[in-house]
Specification:
alpha/beta; 3 domains; five-stranded parallel sheet; 7% strand
């Protein structure tokens, strides 16, 4: 067992990072890029562990164990549940990066979602990367190099992860979680190479059922009324799923705040409690909004996979479809519309995605418009 074991289908990346951890090609700043679910954050954390390990990532020593569990004193992981990472948070991390490590090796700062840095935060980070501490290493993660300031990425060594193939993902699920082969194969295909999503699909029947409802939407978009109903149902299901994820965390945070200010013990609220509660509720509201967008985004990718399957089937591609379990529905889509029309539908899905993520359009409005576009793209039935 090594720190690299959870990096699925990334042999070239593992080779580069392993050699760097041993001193070959080491530098003070790295940028990990790759599509969602490719494991860029996992790769950064594994590399951080290898940098603290005397054997470049053995996976068995105390340094490796604490690094992989998030408790190593010289590894700081910056992640956010908010829509962005602000300058105040980055300045605190920059101040920490200037300190010497507690141990004999490196002070490692891992910044997940570097693409969420505000402009001021990115500029504060740039200065730290331009004038690095001799024993500090920055590991930044983002979907693409274009998501990071050019001045930052030009100072980083690039590590590009690819989407793992379904066979590798299925083998990983069987090996690490004991998932039966048939279920592992289904989860691997349905996740489209997203490791976290594959785990959720393999472990949770409710997650599989929710996805099954989403991928059956295209076959039912036969009238404008059906489009409105599909959009409304998708919004409702999304809110329920996002709420189930955040409600327990919100409750724990409220309880921790009450305990910290002695509300339960004293039976009254001190003066400082009200602004602290307001700040916490504001953060929770922002986090809930991001969670809704994340869940919607995943559903949109599932929808797009149906039309990708239709294009593949119409082109005579061999092998299993992403949504093999609804091959009958996809065959009907192929009979009703051309490959060009399915491409138009995929474009409509990505337009809705951009409206919500980039232009803050309410999901209900964006999804209604998208569902209608999916229906109209087919033209008259044939």
């Amino acid at each position: 067992m090594t720190v690299w074991d959870d990096l699925v289908g990334q042999r070239a990346v593992i080779d580069v990072l392993s050699r760097a951890a041993g001193g070959d090609g080491m530098t003070h700043a790295w940028l990990f890029t790759g599509p969602p679910g490719s494991g860029r954050s996992n790769a950064a954390v594994a590399f951080a562990a290898a940098l603290q390990c005397e054997r470049a990532g053995c996976g068995e020593c105390h340094s490796c164990h604490t690094a992989m569990t998030g408790s190593h004193a010289d590894i700081t992981i910056v992640r956010t549940e908010q829509l962005s990472i602000g300058v105040k948070e980055v300045r605190a991390i920059v101040k920490r990066s200037a300190l010497s490590p507690n141990g004999r090796r490196w002070q490692v700062i891992v910044v997940e979602d570097s693409d969420r840095l505000t402009d001021h935060a990115a500029n504060a980070l740039l200065k730290a990367i331009e004038e690095p501490n001799q024993r500090t290493v920055w590991l930044l993660c983002a979907p693409t190099v274009e998501d990071v300031l050019p001045t930052i990425r030009s100072r980083c060594r690039l590590v590009t992860l690819s989407t793992p193939v379904a066979a590798d993902v299925a083998a990983f699920l069987e090996r690490t979680a004991g998932v039966p082969p048939a279920l592992a194969a289904h989860a691997a295909r349905a996740s489209q190479g997203h490791i976290g999503r594959a785990k959720a699909l393999a472990r949770d029947e409710d997650t599989r059922n929710r996805r099954a409802e989403v991928v059956r939407i295209p076959a039912g978009l036969t009238t404008l009324g059906a489009c409105m109903t599909a959009a409304s149902n998708l919004v409702e299901v999304t809110k329920q799923e996002a709420g189930s994820i955040t409600s327990d965390l919100d409750a724990r945070e409220k309880q921790d705040l009450n305990t910290a200010y002695g509300v339960a013990e004293r039976g009254r609220r001190p003066r400082e409690y009200a602004p602290a509660l307001a700040a916490m509720e504001k953060d929770q509201k922002t986090r809930a909004k991001r969670r809704v967008l994340d869940v919607v985004d995943r559903s949109l990718m599932d929808l797009a996979s149906v039309y990708r399957d239709a294009i593949a089937l119409s082109a005579g591609a061999r092998g299993d479809l992403i949504n093999e379990e609804i091959r009958g529905d996809i065959t009907q889509l192929v009979r009703r519309s051309s490959a060009e029309q399915h491409l138009v539908r995929i474009e409509a899905i990505f337009t809705a995605r951009e409206q919500m993520l980039e232009f803050n359009v309410p999901p209900a409005i964006a999804l209604e418009s998208m569902m209608v576009a999916l229906r109209l793209a087919g033209g008259p039935s044939r």
